[in-house]
Amino acid sequence: MSDIFSTTGTPYADGKILQHTTDGVGVITFNNPDKRNAMSLEMWEGFGEALTSLRDDETVRVVVLRGAGGKAFVSGADISQFEKTRHNAAASEEYARRSAAQRALLADYPKPTIACIDGFCLGGGMQVAMLADIRIAAHDSQFGIPAAKLGIAYGFDGLRHLVSLVGPSWARLLMYTGMRIDSAEALRIGLIERVFPVDELWGETMTIAETISQNAPLAIKAAKITIAQVLKDESQRDMDAIKAIGNACMDSADFREGRQAFMEKRKPQFQGR
Ligand code: COA
After folding, report:
1. Which of 240, 150, 130 lies closest to 193, judged by CA?
2. In the CATH hierarchy, which top-level class contains the domain 2-214?
3. In angstroms, how far apart are the furthest CA atoms of the chain?
């Protein structure tokens, strides 16, 4: 994917997080290739800033996350910071609070998100990938959560997503062993959705992103909201939110445009209202 990193964009965390937009697609790049894109606390916070900026950019309809360097998506949290920032429960709490606040932005993101994975996707990298709506990977990528090899507990949110994607038994196998699996296995167990040869990965990811960005934003929002509610316990579900977005779709100019464009055999132009 090397050619695509020539694009200049807005830097965060001293350039270790990059952000740019292209044709309605926002792109965030984890850019610490010397450390296989391991995430320092500054990078988590820069990631949050980039997410916020793309969330608030009305021209952006979908966000793609990727790693620079061709070797990793994200190899997890930066272990070299652990001695200072995560050496015991008290220190770890502050670290978790600050990094979790950024992941919460992704968990509640109002726009569709895609993780484009080329290489290692480990630990905290898996957390990011699992929080994205869709995961697309290169053939030779590797996935794992080596918490048991480090002696740390992977938190509730990460495991909730893992269990919902691969089921409790695979979650246990991955967590108890800390093993790494390849893209073929990850695809088979439902951890990722699509796999491509590495030289096709970016083009295929952008094709999916552009397809999403050209579809009706309110209809996509309805799907995103409703699927999130499906995953909640019944007692926690906000059925009113589902009703409200359903009504917003039916009353939208885009629904009118969608109907008309179909009848007139032309491509619809959606405005998101
Ligand atoms: N934190 C800090 N530094 C990391 C890192 C991490 N999570 N992952 C990789 N690095 C650093 C390595 O220390 C090495 O630094 P050096 O060049 O100064 O020695 C550099 O990145 C390259 O890593 P290396 O192990 O030589 O590359 P590799 O291609 O052989 O293996 C990994 C890559 C990602 C498989 C391996 O580095 C690894 O297992 N990393 C730790 C993953 C992990 O435990 N993540 C969970 C953290 S909660």
Report:
1. 130
2. alpha beta
3. 64
Instruction: Starting at the earlier edge strand, list the strands of the sheet with 194-196.
Output: 10-12, 17-22, 25-30, 62-67, 113-117, 134-138, 194-196
Strands 142-144 and 180-182: antiparallel
126-163 pLDDT, tens per residue?
999 999 999 999 999 999 999 999 999 999 999 999 99
The domain ranges of the chain are 2-214, 217-263
∠ CA(82), CA(85), CA(87), 5° rounding?
Answer: 60
| Chain segment 195-234, per-residue pLDDT in tens | 999 999 999 999 999 999 999 999 999 999 999 999 999 9
Place of tokens 């709506």: 133
Q: What are phi and psi of 137, to 5 degrees?
A: -135, 155
Beta-bridged to residue 116, according to DSSP, are 66, 136
Where are the extended beta strands (E) located within the chain? 10-12, 17-22, 25-30, 62-67, 72-74, 113-117, 120-122, 134-138, 142-144, 180-182, 194-196
Rounded to two decimals, the pTM is 0.95
Q: Is the CB of 35 under 6 A from ligand 1?
A: yes
* Ligand 1 geometric centre to CA of 35 (Å): 6
Q: Is the CB of 79 under 6 A from ligand 1?
A: yes
Expressed in angstroms and rounded, the spacing between residue 143 Cα and the centre of ligand 1 is: 14
Q: What amino acid is encoded at 125 in this protein? A: G
Q: Take atom 42 of ligand 1 and give the residue whose Cα is closest.
A: 75
Which of 191, 140, 185 shows the shortest CA–CA distance to 164? 191
User: Which of 34, 42, 73, 75 to mutate to test ligand 1, by most ligand atoms within 8 A of the CB atom?
Assistant: 75
- What's the CA angle centered on 49, arms 48 and 54, to 5 degrees? 100
